[in-house]
Amino acid sequence: TGLRDWFYDKWQGPITKLDIINHLVLLNNFFTDNYNPVIWSLAQEMRISIVFPLLFLLFYKQSWKKTILFAMSFSLIGIFLNM
């Protein structure tokens, strides 16, 4: 038996100081072959854990109409940035 090809495809390049710094400051990409494919999700989870409370504080005292407008605007910006 043995490990599958997807396992051997990882860790193809050396891990650089920049890779480590980017990961620590949550700037790493969604898909990378530089490290374990599960690790990238930790940065995404930390981003969500930091951003959601900040958004709550930002919109807590706003009217519901303004909050919906901002949410739709952010959604549209996200859609256009991913095109």
Overall form? elongated
Strand content: under 5%
Pairing-aware structural class of the strands and helices? mainly alpha
State the order of secondary-structure elements, H for helix, E for strand: HHHH
- Distance between the terminal alpha carbons, to the nearest Å? 42 Å
What's the SSE blueprint?
Elements: H1 5-9, H2 17-24, H3 40-59, H4 64-81
Describe this structure in words.
- The protein has 83 residues and is mostly helical.
- It has one domain (5-81).
- 61% of the residues lie in helices and 0% in strands.
- It has helices at residues 5-9, 17-24, 40-59, 64-81.
- The protein is elongated.
- The mean pLDDT is 78.
Brief summary of the model shown:
Helix content is 61%, strand content 0%.
Which descriptors would you attach to this protein?
transmembrane; 61% helix; transferase; acyltransferase; transmembrane helix
